[in-house]
Amino acid sequence: MKKEFLSVLAQLEREKGLDRSVLIEAIKYALAVAAKKIAKINSPDEEEEIRVEIDPEKGDINVYVGDKEIVSNEFGRIAAQTTRQVIIQKIREAEKDNIYAEYKDKVGSLVAGTVYRMERRAVILDLMGKTEGIIPQSFLSPLDRFRMGERIKAYIYEVKQEKGVQIILSRKHEGLVRKLFDLEVPEIAEGIVEIKAIARDAGERTKIAVASKDEKVDCVGACVGIRGSRVKNVIEELRGEKIDIVRWSDDIKEFIKASLQPAVISMIDLDREAKRARVLVASDQLSLAIGKRGQNVRLASKLVDWIIDVRSRESIEHDKKRLLTLKAVGKKAAEILVDSGYGDLNNLANANPALLAKLKGIGKKKAESIIAEAKKADKNVLKEQRPKPSKDKSQPDSIIEEAKKLAKKNTRQSMFKDKKNNNKG
Question: N or C terminus: which one in the chain shows less Cβ crowding within 10 Å?
Answer without folding.
Answer: C
